[in-house]
Write a structure and sequence with these properties.
about 0% strand, globular, about 50% helix
Length: about 120
Amino acid sequence: MSIKPPEKATRALECRSLEQIPNIGYALAADLRSIGIQWPADLIGRNAFALYLMLCKHTGVLQDPSVLDTFLAAVDFMSGSPAAPWWHYTAIRKEKYGQALQTLIDDDRSAPHRVEEAFAMYGP
């Protein structure tokens, strides 16, 4: 028996669970909960890059950049923007955080000390 995923919201006010946010599935919802984001409203006004770094720090590995794209989309949606696919945020991520993220990737995808340094610079 499979569990039917919740219907995606078309407006932020409709969201009752993280899984209703466009682009957020069960796995990313669990990741968000692991870093203290329990409810959709918890994303309003948050810094997506800081959330990404918190997840990297929590897991001890540098997450795929598409996770940051998805966090950007979710924060933007919960802050009142229309829903958009996560890949529409790739260019924004590259423009805003490209160099900082590329430095982490080039160093070592699993180097926790680099995540700690980035968290100190860009975290909440």
